[in-house]
Write a structure and sequence with these properties.
The protein has 252 residues and is α/β, with parallel strands linked by helices. 30% of the residues lie in helices and 29% in strands. The chain folds into two domains: 2-127, Rossmann fold, CATH 3.40.50.2300; 145-236, OB fold (Dihydrolipoamide Acetyltransferase, E2P). The chain has helices spanning 11-27, 41-50, 68-78, 94-97, 112-127, 175-178, 224-236, and strands at 2-7, 32-38, 55-59, 83-88, 104-107, 135-137, 144-146, 150-156, 159-164, 168-172, 186-190, 193-196, 200-204, 209-212, 219-221. The strands form four sheets. Strands 2-1-3-4-5 form a five-stranded parallel β-sheet, sandwiched between helices. Strands 10-9-8-12-11 form a five-stranded antiparallel β-sheet. The two termini are 23 Å apart.
Length: 252
């Protein structure tokens, strides 16, 4: 599910935009949700720092010492992948706004048709092939997740469970089918697990467990049949230091 966050100093504008987005998500069967909205830029900054956020709607004039552009530039420093969409009644801000690697600028007053046009174009961008982002479509309900947030995938009966930074996703599928959609950094490590090697922080040799870059300390198991191949891949990827308990992943 895609996470949308909204910031506007006017509470009624926030409520209206949230309702517009909800109607668009429902109309076009998009697996997305407004997870947070606030008139206070500091609160939005705190939320984005501690949660996975995919799309950010920012009003430019926030009646604060921090403008929407300031907030966008600050967030861009630690989240280079987030989609930023500015809203404003002041068209003179357009050129300045686009310096923030902006996806779109929507003039106020906001109308549903204009927002829908932006959202559909955003979904096309998400679904398109790119070197920067690889998104995985889980099922025919348009559930889309960023592969960079997936720690591992677990096979449980007829289901696959995707363990991400913040939650799990379930879908009815098989390893053989989903493998065609996964990038090369996803490696089979067990008959019931596929691990994202870019998310590995440590491997425990005594228990054959993989530890991931995640505060929840979630882990998955290495099967004897897959161990040699996994370690070879890690070695070739530069994440291996000749010790099973010393996987050094610079992205963690």
């Amino acid at each position: 599910m895609l996470s949308f966050v909204l910031c506007d100093d006017n509470k009624s504008n926030l409520d209206r935009l949230s309702k517009i987005l909800d109607s668009i998500f429902m109309q076009y069967n998009i697996d997305a949700k407004v997870t947070f909205s606030s008139p206070t830029p500091e609160d939005v900054l705190t939320y984005v720092k501690s949660n996975t956020v995919d799309v950010l709607f920012l009003d430019i004039d926030l009646k604060s010492e921090i403008s929407g552009i300031d907030l966008g530039n600050t967030i861009r420093k630690f989240n280079k992948d987030i989609y930023i969409i500015f809203t404003s009644a002041h068209l003179e801000y357009i050129l300045v706004a686009y310096k923030c690697k902006t996806f779109d600028f929507i003039p106020k007053p906001i109308c549903t048709e204009r927002v829908a046009e932006t959202i559909l174009r955003l979904m096309e961008d998400i679904n398109s092939d790119s070197e920067k982002n690889v998104f995985i479509r889980l099922d025919n309900r348009n559930t889309i997740i960023n592969e960079a947030n997936v720690n591992f995938i677990k096979k449980e009966g007829m289901k696959l469970i995707f363990y991400t930074n913040t939650r799990t996703y379930e879908t009815y599928n098989s390893f053989s089918k989903i493998s065609n959609e996964l990038p090369s950094n996803f490696v089979r490590c067990h008959k019931s697990y596929i691990a994202n090697i870019n998310r590995i922080s440590n491997i425990k040799s005594d228990s054959n467990e993989i530890i991931f870059c995640d505060k929840s300390n979630i882990k998955c198991t290495i099967g004897p049949k897959y161990k040699n191949n996994l370690m070879e891949v890690l070695k070739n990827n530069g994440n291996f230091s000749n010790n099973l308990d010393s996987v050094n992943n610079g992205e963690c």
